[in-house]
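At your convenience, could you comment on the folded chain following this short note?
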Amino acid sequence: MPPPAASSRYPSPSQPSGKSEVTDLKSQLRQLAGSRAPGVDDSKRDLFKKVISYMTIGIDVSSVFGEMVMCSATSDIVLKKMCYLYVGNYAKGNPDLSLLTINFLQRDCKDEDPMIRGLALRSLCSLRVPNLVEYLLGPLGSGLKDNNSYVRTIAVTGVLKLYHISASTCIDAEFPATLKSLMLHDSDAQVVANCLAALQEIWSLEASHSEEACREKESLLSKPLIYYFLNRYSYLKGRSKFQYGGVCFCRIKEFNEWAQCLILELAVKYVPSDSNDIFDIMNLLEDRLQHANGAVVLATVKVFLQLTLSMTDVHQQVYERIKSPLLTLVSSGSPEQSYAILSHLHLLVVRAPFIFASDYKHFYCQYNEPSYVKKLKLEMLTAIANESNTYEIVTELCEYAANVDIEIARESIRAVGKIALQQYDVNAIVDRLLQFLEMEKDYVTAETLVLVKDLLRKHPQWSHDCISVVGGISSKNIQEPKAKAALIWMLGEYAQDMSDAPYILENLIENWEEEHSAEVRLHLLTAAMKCFFKRAPETQKALGIALAAGIADFHQDVHDRALFYYRVLQYDVHVAERVVSPPQQAVSAFADTQSSEIKDRIFDEFNSLSVIYQKPSYIFTDKEHRGPFEFSDELGSTSITPEVSSDIVPAQQFEANDKDLLLSTDEKDDNKGLSSNNGSAYTAPYESSNISSQMQELAISGPAASATTTQSSFDFDDLLGLGLSTAPAPTPSPPLLKLNARAALDPRAFQQKWRQLPISLSQEYSVNPQGIAALTVPQSLIKHMQSHSIHCIASGGQSPNFKFFFFAQKEAEPLDYLTECIINSSSAKAQIKVKADEQSTSQAFATVFETALSKFGMP
């Protein structure tokens, strides 16, 4: 946010109380401008410090610009620096005033002191005023030929600044050719590095419309230049064009860390002519692996890895060689550096876990490490676990389960479960997992239940041991949706081995309305079906209640599954059993969250933020900065082309088609006058007469269907305990929530409510392709949601991530609904969090929000 106005700040000794003090400062500077009295420089310093301090805290002191320039006629370098700082700050916003500085800056560029020459040249190039470009050419040309390396270094950077101000002026003055000559012949390593950086940027920008620049850019990757920068003596011996004054320099060691990384990044792009070329470069860079700077080590590692990709045996030896330097950096640096190095080590561990298997103790968590480092170490312990070290690793992970940091405790339990899914011999691991259930900590129990479920899917032979322990857990103590869903899955899958399974499910189904998670309700439907096939008499009533509640459910997926189960049971119970509860088969492997292509792309972007984020750069960078990779190649085209748009079905037509899949022709005619279920395309069959007609009119081919469709469905309803033939019709679903189109909410009130109210529900929706294509800027969605009486109070972000804060008000009642909506256009997903004054209506509002979002971008 902008700084407060000067009048609203508290006065301080270093701050003027009004314009009069700035005026006094101006008059004092004017008096000292032409004075040569003893001690005048000290007085100027005090005044200059005041000016800089006022400028730093945001006070406009541009009125003293002329006086500051007049006072700059001094040999005191401290005064020069403060004056240059002042001029650089106000020059761009005051181009007319900048003209006053040209004379004294050009004069200082010819000063005897190289420090003053360099500072003056840097300030002159930092004015960034297009009208003053002509005044830069002379000082830059002189600076590039200066005898002092500091001035030449500043001049090289000034050429790049000139290019960004006026590219044509820079090219016409032939500065790139001068930089190339300096790069090849200058004796100072920093000058060479600056020339390389400037030429890379200039030629990269010019290559799009200049063949000569394209050739020059490619020449940077030639063998002579690569060896010139790396400077292997045996290659340079006798080649005087790469020597300066008859002396051969070991270039790579002379450069500072930043320049070494720049050169190593250039070496990565070099294509060696043969294997000898590869070994020569690796031998030359061997000592860079021992460098104290982590950036240099990682850049060297990237060179080694990329050079040996086509040499399998050598590539493996490279892993062995780089392991020790990276592990040393992890233990010797700051937590931030350790995390960066660990992220790269994690990438290498995933590609070659067997090489790091013997070094697993390096990845044990230390008590004083931050949580983000511990979490990454847990992932690495999971990746390197094998038959030889599993026992030690699992023992260590079990200690972390009692950690005071709940998130680390959860991650350690998940790590144990992942190791169990990777190994064939899981005897000891299963015992450890089951011991977690005895810790009587909610989050430990929740994570363990999820892992036990996955373990039983892969190793069904352990069902007896696991079920005997899981059966003693009360479902009332499980609050997390994923854990409750895992417990329900085991109740349905192993109902024959758990004596209380039908009764636990019945108790959960009776509390259907209190269950807010759609995932849990979906698992309840499936578990009730499975339990019905194994223990029908005990589960009959519970299944009937579950199906009735599911058909009337607001959530579309729950409604669809319940209706599907209802109809497949009505068609043939044996077919339903084969569909819902087939013979159990072990899962051979679980799907990886990242494809091999994504992992290879991240590996190609080694030593970059892609490794830290564990995502390719195209996901988190703007399109213009993605380099050679096209957006459509990775994520698919999100825009709707004319050829594709003709095949897209409008929302209403899609709902009608979906309805046709479930209802017969006569039934559609009967339902034309009925209102939809909370905006859904489906209408729940509430009345017994409608249910009867549905059962009789189902058009399912096959002999089984012909035999069953002639019978009444009342017997089937009685079997499930629905009692639809005699019981009165249930209460219809509530109507859609009506919102106030003229709602208003102050931003401060929104912020205060957002802090005070708890999250009522959190859901994830899919955004249609038309919506993704229309979401080029946040304003497009804001206008659309406003047309549905949902107003935006704040928004931000850019593709692919957009964030919105919406609010809405219930019609005729002062009830507010606050919503945070995060949309990722690359995954076409929207995550929302809803906070409401009346939490009981949060689901109804979420349905309205989802309906409005689903229509975004539709014609």
